[in-house]
Amino acid sequence: MAAFERILVTGGAGFVGGHLCAALAAAYPQATRAVLLRPGERGGHPAFEATAADLTDEPAIDALIARFRPDLVVHLAGQASLGQALHAAETTWRVNFHGAFALGAAIARHAPEAVMLFASSATVYGASFRDGVLTEEAPLRPLDVYSRSKVAAESALSDLLAAKGRLVVAPPVNHSGPGQRNRNFALASFAAQIAAIETGRAEPRLMVGDLSKARDFLDVRDVVDAYMRLIEKARDLPASVSIFNIASGTAHRLEALLDRLRRRAKAQFAIEVDPALLRPESDIASVACDATRLTEATGWRPRHDIDDMLQALLDDARAAQAQAATAAL
């Protein structure tokens, strides 16, 4: 395993960050570890020292990197919800692009030989998904502000870090599972609504968007496993900038996934379409990526099937409902 002595994670208090920080702490127990939080943000793994700075505050980010001088940076922070991004273009560009640029520039100045793993998004392929299941060679044809900001960040980081460092760009497909409680994501919303209906705290009516869309989904635990394997192999990769899809290769219709959740529900409910949840016409009908390159380089394969993911997500949503009920007493 590659040795890292100073590890910095951005977005470590988020859904994926919680899982990844735990894995990093277990894999690199002797390393000095820090997690970047937004000013006023709480959370972060207890094995990581919390430091607060706004990613778009370039002087603050520069000072942080100059002081910490990481040899591994995992950049998870960003506007994660496509739905939110569509209604907040300026914020999305500031966080996803300007934040990545500030971080990359600071690393190039103060820690130029560091390894950086950038969690991008499969949405960068955009219109290319009309051609089927995509490899890393597919052209980037983003269709919305979220994916355009991710493409721009990938390009900027490649230019900034290629000379001396190692940049691993990892665009994962949709991922869910235990710990995802943000209702801006379809499966997490379905699970949370079902859990609330089961307790009687919500009407027996589940609100949805377009269920005809098909998406490649992974369990968050498999995505984190892929990140960890890429981190371990980063210094041995043949190129200074490498791109690896993280995907199962299979698209599942949201309607079918909701039906699987419904069969696990302990209460009956109606399903209604909320027009506010419908995406623009540019939304692609089916999204799936090929992860052969990742498997060949690291041996990674998904260990959790779609039913494992859905059950873990629903169990977590039920636990959240129980916590809320206890807190209300």
Describe the protein's topology.
Elements: E1 6-10, H1 15-27, E2 32-37, E3 49-52, H2 58-68, E4 72-75, H3 82-85, H4 89-110, E5 115-119, H5 145-161, E6 166-170, E7 174-176, H6 186-199, E8 205-208, E9 214-219, H7 220-233, E10 241-243, E11 251-253, H8 254-264, E12 270-273, E13 286-287, H9 292-298, H10 306-327
Parallel strand pairs: 1-2, 1-4, 2-3, 4-5, 5-6, 6-10, 7-9, 8-12, 9-13
Antiparallel strand pairs: 9-11
Give Rg in angstroms.
Answer: 20 Å
Oligomer: single chain
Shape: globular
- The number of helical elements comes to 10
Order of helices and strands: EHEEHEHHEHEEHEEHEEHEEHH
Q: Residue-averaged pLDDT, rounded? A: 94
Could you say what the CATH topology of the largest domain is called?
Rossmann fold
Per CATH, the class of the largest domain reads Alpha Beta
- Beta percentage is 15-25%
Report the uncertain regions.
none
The total number of structural domains is 2
Annotated CATH homologous superfamily of the largest domain: NAD(P)-binding Rossmann-like Domain
Can you count the beta strands? 13
**How much helix, percentage-wise, in residues?**
40-55%
In which order are the strands of the major sheet placed?
A: 3-2-1-4-5-6-10
The description of the largest β-sheet is:
7 strands, parallel
User: Distance N terminus to C terminus?
Assistant: 48 Å
